[in-house]
Structure formats: structure tokens, C-alpha cells
Amino acid sequence: MNAYLRIGAALVAVSSLSACATVLRGTNQKFEISSVPPGADVELSTGQTCVTPCKLKLKRKESFTATFKKPGYQTATAQVESKFTGAGAGAGNILAGGIIGVLVDSGNGSMRSLRPSPLEVKLVPADGSAQ
């Protein structure tokens, strides 16, 4: 009976450590945002703000819209998608973690990446002329 308990405990311990992408990639992503010209105020639909160029730590599982504003330029928006990265992120789970690791990683967003990355937006002058 003790042998069964030890095996069960070992399986539970291994399963709890099997979320490979969570361990290797994390649930957040360092995300760079820039504009041409620089110095634009950026507001994300998630509530974060910055002035370009900037770097933010964002959750991998949340798609968002970025709105760029700069005096003398038209307001611009860009969509950033949270996309499943699959192959590399999930390979460790298939080999070592099994279904529990896949469920953990897919639920917390660690198997996803924000795209495009980095995000760069070219602002258009308010008068519509090209620069």
C-alpha cells in the first residue's frame, strides 16, 4: 500500500511541474512599441499607457488595440493579437507533462504570443501629406 501512495505522490508532483511553457516562457511577454515619428502617446485597450518608444510587460493571452496620438498627426490604431504558438511551447508537455501540462499552459496563456511584435506604427500628418 505504501508503494502505491509513493507512486501516486510522485505522479502528482511530476504533473504539477509539467506545465513546460509556463516555466520556460511565462504568462507575460516583454512587448516593444514604437512610432514614426517617436514621442506618440499610446493607450492600450487593456488600460496601460506609454510614450513611444516604450517597452511593456503584457499578458500573453490578451489581444488588444493600441491607439497612438501625437499633436500634428492623425490618431492611429493597431490591433495586436494573442496567437497560439504551438509547436515549441507545447513539445515539452507532450513528452513530459501530458494533458495536465497542456491544460495549464493553454489556460494561462503561456502557449501564446502577442503579434505583431514589436509593434511599429507610422503616423500620418494631420494635413494628410506624406513625410
From TrEMBL:
Top-level taxon in the UniProt lineage: Bacteria
Keyword list, A-Z:
Signal
- Where does the secretion signal sit in this chain? 1-21
UniProt domain PEGA: residue ranges: 32-81
Keyword Signal tagged: yes
Q: Which Pfam families does the UniProt entry name for this protein? A: PEGA
Name used for this protein in its record: PEGA domain-containing protein
